[in-house]
Predict the 3D structure of the following.
Amino acid sequence: MNQKHDYSELKNVTILVVEDDEDELEELCSLLEIYCKECYKARDGEEGLAQFMIHQPDIVLVDLGLPKMDGFSLIRKMREINEDISVVLHTVFASIDTFLQAIGDKISGYVIKPTNAKLLLDVLLKESKAVIKDKEFKKEKILTQAILNEFPYPMVVIDLECNISFVNNLAKKLNFIGEREFIKCYDKSENNDIVCKFTGNFCKREVSLANGASRRELYEDTDKNGKTTYLDIKTIPMKNENNEIYAFLKIIQDKTVDKEREAELQYMANYDMLTKLPNRILLKDRLEQAILRSKRSQKNFAILFIDLDKFKEVNDTFGHNAGDQLLQMVADRIKTTIRQTDTLARFGGDEFVLILESASSKEQYILIAKSILEKLSMPFTLDHSTQVRIACSIGIEICNEHSECSSEASLIHNADKAMYEAKRSGKNRYKFLKE
């Protein structure tokens, strides 16, 4: 039985031989012990199953006509333990029905008795190569899984049917997979049962299928409690050896904190932290927009420059905390006299600027100015029941075809001049720049 062929790869596999003929069993094992890593033996189906469970061989060489449990029954039992086990039939039965049943039971090799040693070794060599390749694949898969599980961002694999087929450890914490083996990505992300039918279009698989390129997008998700989460999702098409897309790998980064911080910085850049009113930066933008709208619509608008009277006395007498509280209360009172379409901004210190686009005539501007004067002349009750009285002076500049309103700076300058005229006239009153 000397062989010229290289069967060295058989040294990497273990084989279980299940054969009820004692002489045949010994002859086979004597041969295979030379070439294989390990050879185990069993004389009937029940012993074969026991040996299989103990040793977990790579390949099983099994006869069909076995006592206690026939070969096909044994194969089915083994498949319940390991569905991928490599099985080679070794039998005298060569009927068409036997071949068909062998195909149905996923038998990968067939050797007819009496045994031809070379043919047997050739069949086992072929099986061993498949087993070794499968082991390497599983080892690589385990390694890949370990790497992906330790990846610092959540990762999800979604197949072409939108099933979430893989999640790493961080993605599991985001609850991307549930009790079912396959979860639809759109079902999991927005409890929707229609593909790509939700806000944000999380999948957009038709885009990747069309161009085959990776892409990145920011996905905004609002849950039933109104909490918004921002996810930066990079989608990478996964392709087979034919360069065909069969799945998508999604790398997910939670950008909620970044977005919240960005919104916070944006707010701080445009709003006064004390009164929560627009600051000078946002006021400038609002005025520029108002000028453009006025030119397009040929409609007038006005700005009121409001400066508090006696505010310094409150600050000096009761302290800066009382002064801050008073400014907040002043802002609240002025807001009760205007509409949501108007803009009230804190210009600085105890100065406020009001843009009136909702009013369109001088009489309306006067009514609003009088209302503000009246509101601010009423007593303010600060902490500890401290009551204070202040007033204000208001300068009004109208932006129309007769005025200088080419820029926001000129409008504010003119309204400021009118406000100083009101102060020189005795305070607690309003003045137009040109009357």
Remarks:
- Confidence is low (pLDDT under 50) at residues 177-182, 187-202.
